[in-house]
Amino acid sequence: MLRIHFTNADLVRTRVAAGPDPLWEICTSLHRLQTRHGRWAYADWYRTARDRLHAGQFTRTLRTLLLPLVPRAAYFPDFLTPPEASEGLDSGLEAIRATPPRRVLDEVGVLGRTSGAPAWAPRLAEPDMREELVRAMRTYYDTIIAPYSEHAEARVEAERSARARAVLDHGTEGVLRNLGPCLRWRHPVLHSVYPEDRDLRLDGRGLRLIPSHFSWGNPVALAEPTLEPVLIYSLSHEPHHTALPGDLGSGAPLATLLGRTRATVLRAAANGATTGELARVAGVSASSASQHATTLRDNGLIVSNRHASSVLHTLTPLGAALLRRSTRALA
């Protein structure tokens, strides 16, 4: 069990990441390749990833360099997921390059004592070996993660909309409620299923919540308590509509594709909206708005979740992609 202890100052400083963290997505996706748990939620990605890795002759690098450093276990080195990655892949990889050699050796040592480190791992303290690692991580990201970046970004946008609504309804603590089946908020402590028994005291630093498309199961926190506190948690997964169809680039206006009212409803859901709010924006009755939402939901364009006494509608990755592409076509 992981227990994260909050003060009032920590509650004020708790925030949700603006988008997927590219280095955490690399690490959590490497975990997905090491287990069948949750494979159904990533079936399309897994098949495509396997083919792309093979076609790019990257399988050996994956098995000998990346997977040994990021085992699906209680620990992997913190320096692989620096906070600078919130500014983009380039910033994150540059931070890995700049990691002090002493820290690299210390964390590789922890890996060796806990999960087992490859014999070559101490060489990561050397700039040339770290450069090889950075190149491998970039190639892996470009090959495996980037093709799904639009999908992941849309899912995080929907999650942020839900968390923003939680703040409006329940205050800052609303962000910490209903984060998933593995997390439970009991003021002033956030409890999480975890592979070890541990207490993390934020001491006024706040907590950065990072929703991850490729995370599955229990959340993940950095092992070193002096680093910026973060918690990576899994987004909920739907069994359908996991891949974007290839015909979204037609550029047809939304009103032509969906009808004017339904297109308005879809746009209103972009920032999260209740049924009543959809009705007001579209200028229709609540029952009509509900019917339009049902049609959009049945076609995989929005997802609806009960939130307190109302139902909150947000875009699915498919809906967000359709909306973005239609907007670009009109620009």
Tell me about this structure.
The chain has 331 residues and is α/β, with parallel strands linked by helices. It folds into 3 domains: 2-16 and 151-234, no CATH class; 22-149, no CATH class; 248-330, Winged helix-like DNA-binding domain superfamily/Winged helix DNA-binding domain (Arc Repressor Mutant, subunit A, Orthogonal Bundle), CATH 1.10.10.10. It has helices spanning 8-12, 22-32, 43-55, 59-69, 89-97, 101-114, 127-145, 149-170, 254-258, 260-268, 275-282, 286-298, 317-330, and strands at residues 2-5, 15-16, 183-186, 189-192, 198-201, 208-212, 220-221, 230-234, 273-274, 302-307, 310-315. It has a 4-stranded mixed sheet with strand order 3-4-1-5, with no helix packed on it. A 4-stranded mixed sheet has the order 2-6-8-7. It has a 3-stranded antiparallel sheet with strand order 9-11-10, with helices on both faces. The protein is globular, with a radius of gyration of 21 Å. 37% of the residues are buried. The model is unreliable at 239-251 (pLDDT under 50).
